[in-house]
Write a structure and sequence with these properties.
The complex is a heterodimer of chains A (176) and B (133). With 176 residues, chain A is mainly α. Chain A folds into two domains: 2-62, DnaJ domain (Helix Hairpins), CATH 1.10.287; 89-175. Chain A has seven helices and no strands. Chain B has 133 residues and is of the alpha+beta class. Chain B has one domain (5-124): Sufe protein. Chain: A. The chains are: A mainly alpha (176), B alpha+beta (133). Chains A and B meet through helix 5 and helix 7 of A and strand 1 and helix 5 of B.
Chain lengths: 176, 133
């Protein structure tokens, strides 16, 4: 995995963000164009290329969600294409009710507003919970790498994205 | 990609939109969703307990045109079928009928899942009723 390689670290899901930042600064200095001002064109270009990869790597790896997606992709998982049945039934029920409320609000029925506010609060809580769960799964996989954990992570990311989209919709309606 | 005429027809005039009392012992409710696209589909059947024939079907779907058309068509097909016949409905039949493009096949899968979920819910409810009889 290129992003880990360019930073000189082992591919792990759990990363210390302070250490990551230090590594990024260190590598950035090493690859700084000033150091290659007198180098051959091919060497200079290679350094520039590496530097660009480094920037992408840091941007991706410092974000746990992007990091997980990157990691899964390189382990052969395609996020989003998979798993239609990974939404828990009680969440579906809630999503359905929420959509009903959104529809009422669209039709000008303001009485649906309080329901949306409580839905927003609940979905925010769920997002927070899924982030904690994600860190736990990261730790499990780093300790004992396995397909099953990666599948769980993929499911969690799907669910999280679903909740996030809902939250975006709800916020959109509430701000109107 | 353009929708087929049949999709447009079902989408603009969806059949059997609505809901039934999910606590009615003769009503089976199926709720399914797809996390990738945010679609959520509720499909309900009302079964005549004596004949086992589905006498009414309702749905409400939040999603794209193909998802709405798939569930609308499903409710049309369900009415008049026995529960066992309804279990035989395949998503591929929905794909063919609505001429769904490959990227929309998952909508028909969702509809088939909803049918099965509704039937399973009905059966789950019906068992204790029969046991008492």
């Amino acid at each position: 995995m290129d992003y880990y390689r360019v930073l000189g670290i082992d591919p792990k899901l759990q990363l210390n963000l302070n250490e990551l930042q230090q590594l990024f600064y260190g590598r950035s200095r090493e690859l700084h164009p000033d150091r290659f001002a007198r180098a051959e064109a091919s060497v200079r270009d290679a350094a520039l290329q590496e530097s660009s990869t480094l920037n992408d790597a840091y941007r991706t790896l410092r974000d746990p969600l992007q990091r997980a997606e990157y990691f899964l992709k390189h382990r052969g998982f395609d996020i989003g294409e998979q798993g239609t049945k990974e939404v828990p039934p009680e969440l579906l029920e809630e999503v359905f009710e929420l959509n009903m409320a959104l529809e009422e609000l669209k039709d000008g029925d303001e009485s649906a507003r309080p329901q949306l506010v409580s839905a927003r609060d609940h979905f925010s809580t769920l997002l927070g919970e899924s982030d904690i769960e994600l860190e736990k799964l990261f730790a499990v996989h780093d300790a004992t790498p396995g397909e099953d954990t990666l599948k769980q992570i993929r499911g969690l990311l799907n669910r999280r994205r679903y909740i996030q989209n809902l939250l975006r919709d709800v916020n959109g309606y509430l701000s109107n | 990609m353009a929708y087929s005429e049949k999709v447009v027809d079902h989408y603009s005039n969806p059949r059997n939109v609505g809901s039934m009392d999910k606590n009615d012992p003769n009503v089976g409710t199926g709720m399914v969703g797809a996390p990738e696209c945010g679609d959520v589909m509720k499909l309900q059947i009302k079964v005549d307990p004596i004949s086992g024939i589905i006498e009414d079907a309702k749905f409400k779907t939040f999603g794209c045109g193909s998802a709405i058309a798939s569930s609308s068509l499903a409710t049309e097909w369900l009415k008049g079928k026995t529960v066992d016949q309804a279990m035989e409905i395949k998503n591929t039949e929905i794909v063919t009928e609505l001429a769904l493009p490959p990227v929309k096949v998952h909508c028909s899968v969702l509809a088939e899942d909803a049918i099965k979920a509704a039937i399973n819910d009905y059966k789950k409810k019906a068992v204790p009723a029969h046991a008492n009889a």
